[in-house]
Specification:
The chain has 16 helices and eleven strands. The chain is α/β, with parallel strands linked by helices. It has three domains: 144 residues, Rossmann fold (3-Layer(aba) Sandwich); 134 residues, no CATH class; 75 residues, Orthogonal Bundle (Rna Polymerase Sigma Factor, Chain: A). Helix 4 packs parallel to helix 5, helix 6 packs parallel to helix 10 and helix 6 packs antiparallel against helix 14. The longest helix has 23 residues. It is globular, with a radius of gyration of 21 Å. It binds NADPH dihydro-nicotinamide-adenine-dinucleotide phosphate and magnesium ion. The site of NADPH dihydro-nicotinamide-adenine-dinucleotide phosphate (NDP) has 27 residues, from helix 1, helix 6 and helix 9. The site of magnesium ion (MG) has 4 residues, from helix 7.
Length: 396
């Protein structure tokens, strides 16, 4: 270590999840470079405590107040502090750190991420819901505090990498790829009977349960379209989706001179996480080398809107913006809860979200209100209540 070397202080939100564990894997491989400040999790106390102890974190936080005693017990004698609850998550975001991974699933990731931006940290953003529900607030907060947001969603990391060194006004289009999810080859008429277990099997990526089901319905791609609109500022008609079953090309950026830059790599999130972790440098990462000749071909097909109606709803949200993103996400999260609980069918999820968008768009002043934490929370809440009503009606 040379003079002036300083360890990078890192915190990981959603440390016990799929992205969190991949982040920890990279940090363990380069232990001397990182000083771990805070790790947060939800119900998986054993994993949270084990990682916090192994990495020598200052504090471990569970989102659930009722699990504080369990966390304390699991950490006893280790010197790692224990904390619990929503406020403790936000406080963990405020602890000085250079780099913070935002990998809580769902709208719950918004406030801890904002707290990290407010203290000027670089926010590695896996939690796409933050940009979908409150994109302008995230970007404003980053600007105001001289903080940076680095995309971790693989498609957005790919776009970010393809844009490096390019002038923004030279970009003519971006193409986001989609695997097509678990049901891409199912007969359309069978989709209504698909079970949560069937939907939670991804053909290429190993991810958390919720995002995997969202891949089957393409609600994940819908969120990603909105995420691309909010983060990069592309207009809706500049952003395209193509089905690419191999999941090797993550996104392509098209320029005004007709050139198209594709980002290619195996479906391993440690690439996008590692890119954000070491940015602006590139670092050797444990990613398989692609043997293109052995792969033989990359294939593409257009997304069928009858199979993936969520893409149509995403277009509506991208056009309208405002608080419609928070409504869309809140309704989607509840529709997914109801599907996982077996109360509604797979295709009902989109119908529920569609009806919530219609009903709440008609409410005076709701969608056009300024985007603040309070208005986002209100729109999110109304969307969840409305989604519950609509889902209950469909469940019959
Ligand atoms: P997981 O379900 O695997 O992990 C979610 C994490 O969030 C866990 O640590 C979980 O804790 C915690 N958590 C769950 N609910 C809450 C809550 N209400 N408050 C605080 N923490 C909570 O999700 P993924 O890692 O798959 O996804 C995380 C985020 O990254 C999502 O926004 C997803 O869209 C995005 N993303 C994920 C990708 C992937 O490859 N997995 C790819 C691109 C984006 P516990 O498990 O202990 O209960
Ligand atoms: Mg993605």
């Amino acid at each position: 270590m040379g003079a002036g070397y300083r360890m990078k202080r890192v915190s990981i939100f959603g440390a016990t999840g799929s992205i969190g564990q991949n982040t920890i894997d990279l940090i363990r491989r380069d232990r001397a470079a990182f000083d771990v400040i805070a790790l947060t999790g939800g119900r998986n106390i054993d994993q949270l405590a084990a990682d916090a102890i192994a990495l020598g974190a200052d504090v471990a936080v569970t989102a659930h107040d009722d699990l504080l005693d369990d966390l304390r017990a699991a950490l006893s004698g280790s010197g790692v502090q224990a904390a619990a609850g929503t406020q403790a998550l936000i406080e963990a975001g405020s602890r000085p750190a250079d780099w913070v991974m935002s990998a809580i699933v769902g709208a719950a990731g918004l406030r801890p991420g904002l707290a990290a931006l407010e203290q000027g940290a670089t926010l590695a953003l896996a939690n796409k819901e933050s940009l979908v529900t409150a994109g302008p607030l995230m970007l404003q907060t980053a600007r105001r505090h001289d903080a940076r947001i680095l995309p971790v969603d693989s498609e957005h990391s790919a776009i970010f990498q393809a844009l490096a060194g390019e002038e923004a006004d030279a970009v003519s289009r971006v193409i986001i790829t989609a695997s097509g999810g678990a049901f891409r080859d199912w007969p359309l008429e069978d989709l209504a009977r698909a079970t949560p277990e069937q939907a939670a099997t991804h053909p290429n990526w190993d991810m958390g349960q919720r995002i995997t089901i969202d891949s089957a319905s393409m609600f994940n791609k819908a969120l990603e379209l909105i995420e691309a609109r909010e983060f990069f500022g592309f207009t809706p008609d500049q952003i395209e989706v193509v089905i690419h079953p191999e999941s090797m090309i993550h996104a392509l950026v098209g320029f005004c001179d007709g050139g198209l830059m594709a980002h290619v790599g195996p479906p391993d999130m440690r690439h996008a996480i590692g890119y954000a972790l070491y940015w602006p440098k590139r670092q050797a990462l444990p990613i398989d080398i692609l043997d293109l000749a052995a792969i033989g071909q990359f294939t593409f097909r257009p997304p069928d809107l009858r199979r993936y109606p969520a893409l149509r709803l995403a277009r509506e949200v991208m056009q309208t913006r405002g608080l419609l993103g928070a409504v869309f996400n809140g309704a989607k999260e509840r529709a997914l809860d109801h599907f996982i609980a077996g109360r509604i069918g797979f295709c009902d999820m989109c119908d529920v979200v569609d009806e919530v968008l219609t009903r709440l768009s008609a409410r005076d002043g709701l969608i056009d209100a300024e985007i603040t934490l309070d208005t986002v929370a209100k729109a999110d809440h109304l969307a969840r209540v409305c989604a519950d009503e609509v889902a209950q009606k469909r469940a019959g």
